[in-house]
Every structure is written in C-alpha cells, then in structure tokens.
Design goal:
single chain; two-stranded antiparallel sheet; 5 helices; extended
Length: about 140
C-alpha cells in the first residue's frame, strides 16, 4: 500500500486570503486596539498611542528575523529582561617566562577553573534534591 507523505509541513496554511490565521489575529487585534484608542481618546492621543500599536501588530504579522517570526525575538528579549543573569568575570593572570617573550611584554591568560570539594558538591546536590522535591510532586499530580 502506498501512502501520501505530507510535504511542506513548516509552511502555515493561508486561511484568510493571503494571510495565515496567526497573521490575521495579529492584524485584527492591532487594528481593534487602534480603533479602540481612536474611539476612547482624543484624536491627538489616539494617534500617538494607536500608530505604534498598529505598527507593532503589522510587524508581528509580517516581519521575520533569521527566517523566524518576530514574536520569537520579542519573547526572547522579554525573557532576557526578566530572568536572572550570571555574570562571570575571568581575570587574566600574566606569567613571566625566562625566554625572550617576557621581555616583549606578552601575556598568557590562565583559565581559572573553580575547584569544588566532594563534600561541597554533595551538599549542593542534596540541596537541589530537597528543593526540587515539592516541584516534582506537583508535576506528577
């Protein structure tokens, strides 16, 4: 028996004319918010608020960055702004050699790898197990 294998599964279907469902929702939502601003606010303020809303909705519907929708970039930027960040400072130490290179003033970076004793590693693992236990019970329920 032969079966038809679906092709182009990464392309969204066009539902509303040349627009996909997602594009239609973005444009309808942005247009609705702009119209709501026009009806509720004075014209000057409605233009100041409504045009950026409509422009953002248009950009969400049609702009792609690296062949990905703009909403992915907006989500990544939001997550970057909200989540904690880990800043690592890597200090470069200089070693002087007995050869002629030391006279030239070249520096050799030494990578500092933090050392953790086995007992400290055990304490960290135990803390993760204990702190993660309530979360696991919530996920299984």
């Amino acid at each position: 028996m032969r079966f038809a294998v679906p092709q182009f599964i990464d392309v969204e279907d066009k539902i509303f004319g040349p627009l996909t469902f997602r594009q239609f929702i973005y444009l309808a939502g942005g247009g609705g918010l702009a119209f709501l601003c026009y009806k509720v606010m004075p014209l000057f303020f409605a233009i100041i608020v409504g045009l950026p809303v409509a422009g953002f909705a248009f950009a969400l519907a049609f702009v792609k960055i690296n062949e990905k929708p703009l909403i992915n970039t907006v989500e990544a930027a939001f997550n970057y702004g909200v989540r904690d960040k880990l800043y690592v400072w890597k200090q470069e130490h200089t070693k002087k050699k007995a050869t002629g290179e030391a006279a030239q003033g070249t520096t050799v970076p030494v990578s500092a790898i933090p050392r953790i004793s086995e007992s400290k590693l055990h304490d960290i693992a135990w803390g993760l197990d204990v702190l993660d236990a309530p979360r696991r019970t919530q996920l299984t329920n």
